[in-house]
Write a structure and sequence with these properties.
188 residues, mainly alpha, Four Helix Bundle (Hemerythrin (Met), subunit A), two-stranded antiparallel ribbon, 10% strand, elongated
Length: 188
């Protein structure tokens, strides 16, 4: 099965490539296509990187800054890490599986404890990646709705990754406000 996509956009957004990513001309010369299993592998690699970066971020901030926010109108550090990781599951639960978003521990616990936050992040990413591994290839191009927008199921996973990168990037000033450099970006 082949899926027509903007190959350059996928690689740029995710910042990753795989040697087996073969691009071929679509049927009738309609544009580039890529194999479903290559997309699955790229998405899984992106989620693995996101998981590692969210864990790095959660472990790098001092305990004293875990619940710190630059203003009262924005999420504190722990809430922002939670938002980056757990909302992946929200995207998949609503856009792929049509179920309620699972819980990954007690927020009152994991928002106040770094290792509990790491455990919630890990569990959320693992749940999303398992759903991606189990999604039948023939469903990748199936249309679904996410937040009122029609898209193919594989794009729900891509939207989750994009959201994670965006949300994680918002944490950089939290580190800077505490005189720290953020953990390194893992795509390279």
């Amino acid at each position: 099965m082949r899926i027509r996509i903007a190959i350059a956009a996928l690689g740029v957004v995710m910042g990753i490539t795989t040697p087996e990513a073969t691009v071929a001309q679509g049927a009738g010369g309609s544009g580039p296509t890529i194999e479903v299993e290559t997309i699955r592998a790229l998405l899984l690699q992106g989620f693995e990187q996101g998981k590692a970066m969210d864990i790095d971020f959660a472990r790098a901030i001092p305990d004293s800054a875990l619940r710190w926010a630059p203003t009262s109108e924005v999420r504190d550090f722990a809430e922002q890490v939670e938002h980056a990781a757990v909302d992946n599951a929200l995207f998949v639960a609503r856009g792929i599986l049509g179920v309620s978003t699972p819980t990954f521990g007690d927020p009152e616990v994991y928002l106040n404890d770094q290792e509990a936050l790491v455990e919630a992040v890990t569990t959320a990413y693992d749940w999303v990646m398992q759903s991606l591994r189990e999604l039948p290839a023939e469903e990748f191009e199936t249309e679904t709705t996410l937040f009122g927008q029609q898209m193919e199921k594989w794009r729900v996973y891509l939207q989750a990754l994009e959201h994670g990168y965006w949300t994680r990037g918002q944490l950089v000033p939290y580190f800077r406000a505490h005189g720290m450099a953020p953990p390194r970006y893992r795509a390279f």
